[in-house]
Amino acid sequence: MQKKDILNLIKFHAEHNEAGFRNEAYSIARFFDQSGDPQLAEYIMALLSGTNTFVPQSSDYDLPFFSKISLVGDALPLPTLIKNDVLGIINSISHNAGINKFLFEGEPGTGKTETVKQIARILERDLYSIDFDSVIDSKLGQTSKNIAAVFQEIRALPDPSKVVISFDEIDAIALDRVNSNDLREMGRVTSSVLKGLDGLTDGVVLIATTNLFGKFDKALTRRFDSIINFNRYSRDELIDVAESILNELLSKFTFAGRNKRLFRKIVAIMDHIPYPGDLKNIIKTSIAFSDSSSEYDYLRKFYEAVKSDTDDLKKLQDEGFSVREIEILTGVSKSQVSRELKA
């Protein structure tokens, strides 16, 4: 839905244009229905039909320091070790064993935030993420007061079994106190977080993420029931992850052809294979920017993005590419590639 839809609605109402008003309202109802909010769509339709017996139901909670996160999207592929740990988290939550505070640590792009979303999807819960911009305050002592209010909001949830609470990039408030310029203020902030975590009921599921685990306050790490390291990708696993990402994207870009062998060879010769988040961006951009009339143009763009040189035919041969693969990566015909390599 765009601004013009609302403006049209007001315009038609002001002009007493009943037909235009109803058509615009029906269009807005369809938007909400297609966006995953059928209840609001039904409510609008009921109002338009004059049978307003429907009261929209909402599971949204009034959490001023939190934002509700959309769960639309696909989870990043995970290596076996991390996947097993995540399954363990889901099992522990399902068992109501009182293990409910988890910390995901690892470099950017390793899949921490997307995994939090995936856990919420599997558990069929809403996901709320803390807005640290609204928590952190320049006034002395106000940040710790805000943190106390944050945990009060969590404790006041009428049904915590329907939500997952996310502290994404918790290092914004959890770095080691000895590295702070204001030890007293940082001490108050950390103490508020410690007290808040200690006071959580077993029904609350809280998952925090951090890229700076090495600088994390050690007293805080002990408050988490489980800490999952997301840096555990082997090189072979990253190649498999890259292929999995490619297969997912190719289902959306139907013009692109499939050449798994060539794609894996390109990934395998990379000096450093990025973590899944960055890897997905590179692959997606290569496909999106490719010529739709050339089914393998995305492979050439992908090679250029990771190796930056497709002009040296001998280099391509030394990297293990066949004459046909060199033709795909360079656009030079196989016969010409063969002549130049022999020469």
UniProtKB/TrEMBL annotation:
Domain AAA+ ATPase: from-to ranges: 98-234
Presence of the UniProt keyword ATP-binding in the record: yes
Enzyme class per UniProt: hydrolase
UniProt entry keywords in alphabetical sequence: ATP-binding, Hydrolase, Metalloprotease, Nucleotide-binding, Protease
Gene Ontology terms describing biological process: proteolysis
EC number(s) reported in the record: 3.4.24.-
A Pfam family the protein falls into: AAA
Similarity comment: family membership: Belongs to the AAA ATPase family.
Protein's name according to its UniProt entry: ATP-dependent zinc metalloprotease FtsH
Upper lineage: Bacteria, Bacillati, Actinomycetota, Acidimicrobiia, Acidimicrobiales
